[in-house]
Description:
Elements: E1 6-11, E2 19-26, E3 35-39, E4 57-63, E5 72-76, E6 79-83, E7 90-97, E8 107-108, E9 112-115, E10 123-124, E11 132-137, E12 144-147, E13 150-151, E14 158-161, H1 164-168, E15 172-175, E16 178-184, E17 187-195, H2 201-219, E18 226-233, E19 238-242, E20 246-251, H3 253-256, H4 259-274, H5 301-318, H6 324-339, H7 349-354, H8 356-360, H9 376-392, H10 399-413, H11 419-430, H12 437-440, H13 450-455, E21 459-464, E22 473-478, E23 481-487, H14 492-495, E24 503-507, E25 510-511, H15 514-522, E26 529-536, E27 539-546, E28 554-559, H16 565-574
Helix pairs in contact: 2-4, 4-5, 5-9, 10-11
Amino acid sequence: MKEYKxxxxxxxxxxxxxxxxxxxxxxxxxxxxxxxxxxxxxxxxGSYMVREYAQHVHEFTANDFSDQNLNFEKINKNxxxxxxxxxxxxxxxxxxxxxxxxxxxNFLNSSYAFVTPSATFVYLEEFKxxxxxxKVELPEGWEKxxxxxxxxxxxxxxxxxxxxxxLVDSPLLCGNYQTFDFEVDGKNHEIAVQGIFKNDKNTFVxxxxxxxxxxxxxxxxxxxxxxxxxxxxxxxxxxxLEHLNSMAVVFxxxxxxxxxxxxxxxxxxxxxxxxxxxxxxxxxxxxxPFDYDQEIYTKLLWVAEGITSYYDDFxxxxxxxxxxxxxLEVVSKNIKRLQTNYGRNICTLEESSFDAWxxxxxxxxxxxxxxxxxYNKGALLIMCLDLAIRNYSKxxxxxxxxxxxxxxxxxxxxxxxxxxxxxxxxxEVVGSDFPEILVNYLETTExxxxxxxxxxxxxxxxxxxxxxxxxxxxxxxxxxxxxxxRIYQGTPSWDSDINVNDEIIAIDGIRVNKTLLEKFxxxxxxxxxxxxxxxxxxxxxxxxxxxxxxxxxxxxxxxxEDVSELAEQIFQKWIG
Length: 576
C-alpha cells in the first residue's frame, strides 16, 4: 500500500473504554528534509468554533519502518514535529478519547462508533491534496461501516480518499445498526439508523425519499454518485452537519414519535440535504479550501445558513408534510424568536456571521441581549427577498432562480463567490435596480418590514399584544430551588439588582415554587411592585421590581381575503 503517500488504519479494540486507535503511514517523504510536521485540525467545516481536537489525542508515538522509535516534539497545540532523518517512510500511532456524542465530535462505546474525521486523523500539509487510503478494523461481532468515502472493491472496509478535504468531509458510523436503501435519479441512498427506532420504517424511508426528490426537482441534479444518511437516535440529542455526499444527524427518538417533532426532524433532514448545494458547492469564497489550523472569517454565513434555514421549512411545505396554515405558524414563530431577542438591536447579520466563532457558538446567559442568529434572521431576510422578487417580477421569478444562478456560477468558476458577486448575481436575475433589501438589513440593525413583504403575497402580519409580559427573567427549579438563568434587556429584571444564579426564595413574603413564581410573573400589571427575597453567595437580600407596561408580542400570519390579483397569484405560487 506504499503507492499511497498516506495510509490510515482505524481500530477500536475494547470499545467500552472509548478509545479509537489511529495508525498512519506517511510514505515517499522528501529525503532532504530531516523532519515532518504532523497536524490535527482544531475545528471542523460547518461548525464554526475552535474545538481543540488535539486535547483528546493520547499516547502519540512515531517509528520508522524498522519499528525503531523516532524523536519528536510538540511545537504547538496541534502539531507534532517528527525528526525522521533520511527515512522516506514514517509510522505514527496514537489514541483518541471518544465519548462526546455530537455531529462534530467522536463517540465510541460497546455498541457503535461515530467518527468525525477532523477530530481523528492527522495529516501532512504537503500531502493534503494527495490520494490516501483508510482501512477500518471493527471489533469482533461488528459488521457495518457507513460513510460517503469510496469503497475499494475486494478489500474489507477499505476506502480510497481523494484528498484530505474529502476525508474530513466523510464521517463514519460503525456497528450493527439498521440500514435502508432507496434510489432517486438512478443513484443509491443509504440510511444508517443507530439507536432506538419505533417509527414505521416504510414511512420513514418514503418521507426522506420525498425530500430528496423535491430538492432534486428544484436543482435538476444530484451532484454525487451515492449518498449516506447517518442517523443516530439518542435521548436528549439534537443536531446535524452537512457533508459533500453524506450527512450526520442526531435526534431524540422519543420526540420522533410526536407528529410535530417528526416534522421538525424532516426539516432537519431537508436542511442538511439542502447544504449539498448551498455551502458544499454554492458558498461564500472563504468557505473552502480550508485552513484547519485557525478560524475562517466571512461576513456571509447568513447566506450559507440563512438561505438553507428558509428552504428547510419551505421544502417540508412543498413536499406536503406541512399544511399552508402550519407553515404560516412556523414562520410566525420564527419572527417571534427574532423580535423577542434584544440582540437584534445591537448585532447586524454581517457581524453575527463574522463573530460566529466567538459568540454564536459560545453563548452564555447574556447572549440573547447581544447577538442575533444568522440562521433565524437570515432565513427571514431570504423569505422577504423571495417575496420581493416574486412581486418585482410579476410572479415570473423567485429566489429559486437566484439559487440556480448561484449553482451555475459554482459549476463554471469552481469556487465560492464574494459579497459583491453575490449581489450582482441577484441583480442579474431580478433586475439591475434591485434589491435595496440586501443593503438595508445586512449592514444595519433596521427592523425588517414584515408587513410590507408578506403583503406582497396577501398575507396579513398581525401583532398581538394582549398577553402580559413577564418581568424578563428565565429560571429553573431543581430539588425545590429556583435559580435565575437569564435576564432580558429592556425588562424590569434588567433594571433591577437581580442577577443570574440568584436563588429566588419568596415574593412579597410568600414562599414560591415554580408554579407560584410563574403566576406572579405573568399576572403582573403595569406599576405593580414586587419584593423578591433572594440568596446570592449565601447572603440573603431583598430586591424590588416594578412591572412596566411591556407586553409579550405574539405574531400571527393570516391569509387576507380581499387582495389584488397579483398578490393572490403570488400566494398560490409561493405556498398556496
